Here is the input.
Amino acid sequence: MKEHKGLSRRQVLGMAIAAGGFTMSGAVSSVFAQTLKRTPGEILGPFYPVLRSVEKTADLTVLPGKPGRAAGQVIYVMGRVVNVQGEPLRGARVELWQANTHGRYAHPSDTNPAPLDPNFEGFAAQNTDAEGRYRFKTIKPGAYPAAADWMRPPHLHFEVTGKINRLITQMYFPGEPLNDKDILLQQLRNNRERAIAKVLAPTSDVEPDSRIVVWDIVLDKG
Ligand SMILES: [Fe+2]
Here is the structure.
């Protein structure tokens, strides 16, 4: 074990726990690993947004000029964008798009009869901060039918653009029964666990019935 600026492993772990949220993430464990594995890529899918009116905000649960809040379970999705060396990637663009709580995309190509939510468009983008962090407030998406015999489990679509690499992928929720039957998630095989986030209880500064969803994203170089 290499020393890290005079800190013991126990001290570094303690700091990670004190920092909260990222304790179980790849970015923290990367302190002790030579390299991380890249987050697996996935298809763009048919519902990449055509409307981007809410691009400027990281809060997808409210729309400008509308008094209501999006229906469904509020989640705070956060994590770090790092490279395989575990170095945080500052200024990476993180785009998120998703279905609403009913499993419907606000997209003209979505033929799912599930209802639209007038308070939810399901798209946002932001750049990572100096530590490579991103954070969105949104709604846990519902499952939706992708074919007659295929229900997609709840998932978030991401596109992450660094200075060198660009990744299009999807993030999944742990413990979803549909995960085991999803064609796209199962295709990831040994990389499957890296596409599934950790869900934590809410911290004291957010809604008591919300959830914290932690997911780090690993690009190859940056
Ligand atoms: Fe999707």
Observations:
- Residues 45, 47, 152, 155, 157 surround fe (ii) ion (CB under 6 Å).
- The helical segments are 9-19, 26-29, 183-187.
- The first helix runs from residue 9 to 19.
- The first strand starts at residue 74 and ends at 83.
